[in-house]
Structures are given as structure tokens and as C-alpha cells.
Amino acid sequence: MDAVNLSKQHPEQYKLLAGLDASVAASLSAADLDPLLVELVKIRVSQLNGCAFCLRMHTRDAIAKGETTDRLALVAAWWESQYFSEQERAALALAEEVTQLPVPERRSWENGSLTAEQVSAISWLAIVMNSWNRLAIRSHYPVAP
Fold first, then answer.
1. How far apart are CA 56 and CA 67, in angstroms?
2. Residue 21 maps to which CATH number?
3. Whether 132 contacts 48, CB under 8 Å
4. Which of 20, 22, 42, 103 is least surrounded, with the fewest CB atoms within 10 Å of its CB?
5. Is residue 145 assigned to a domain?
6. Average pLDDT, whole number, for the chain?
């Protein structure tokens, strides 16, 4: 059997995920998180999950919002560079922790640069991005030049 496009097979579930995504976006805005930080988290979660569809989409979104190619090139190794602020580093570490669910818990993101509201909003962002990645990968969304 060819790949099944989950969003077309069950559009109601897709709409519910889109609604959750919109709710998380509102939480990110209410938590006063920079839109570029949000895109970096989406990109990093998509890298970890190997989701080409989401990587292309969010890289383009980040560029449109003013992100630099240098920083985009280094997201995969953010801890090795000085390109990212303390808050961005904390957000990326938190998103990795949510995505990879390490044992024992790392908690390297706890550097004081994120409020409780921001920790919650970024955690929900990573949860939703993991869902979008799995939807796109499982549905084999096309990613052609």
C-alpha cells in the first residue's frame, strides 16, 4: 500500500491538531517569546525527528522573519556556537528534552532565562511540533525542489 495521507484520511483530527497549534501559538505570544526563537525551536524539533517537510517550511518562515543563514546553519549544533542567547539556548535544550525524553532527565535548560509561563509555552510548542512532524513523516508529504 502506498503512503496514507493522514490529514486527508481523517480531516477532523487534522483540524483538532491545527486548533491546538493555534492555541499554543497564542500561549507563545502571551509568554512574550520572540518569533525567531519559536522558529528555531520548530526547526530543531524537526531536525531531531527528521521531518524534511517541516524543516523546509520553518526554515523559510525563519528567513522571512529575518533569521540569518549563519544561525540557521548552526541550529543542529547550537551548544557549540556563541550565536544563540541564553534564552534561546534554554529553549532549544528544553525542546530537545521534550522531544527525546532522556533518562535520567537532563534539565540543562534551567539557567534562569525562561519564566514558568515560557517553559510551559515552549514545552507545548515542542509537543505540537512533534505531532506535526509525525503527521508529515507518516503521510510522506512531498518535499521536492
1. 14
2. 1.20.1290.10
3. no
4. 103
5. no
6. 92
State the residue range of the domain holding 59: 8-139
Closest alpha carbon to 5 in 53, 56, 49, 76 = 53
pLDDT in tens, 74-132: 999 999 999 999 999 999 999 998 898 766 666 777 888 899 899 999 999 999 999 99
Using alpha carbons, select from 97, 36, 99, 124 the residue that is nearest to residue 72.
36
In a domain, 144, yes or no: no
What single-letter amino acid sits at 112? G
| 128: exposed, middle or buried (Cβ count in 10 Å: 0-12, 13-18, 19+) | buried
Residue 106: what pLDDT? 66
CA-CA distance, 125 to 108, in Å (whole number)?
A: 18
Question: What is the rounded CA–CA span in Å between residue 138 and residue 120?
Answer: 27
Dist. CA 107–CA 93, nearest whole Å: 8
Report the pLDDT value the prediction gives residue 2, as an integer from 0 to 100: 77
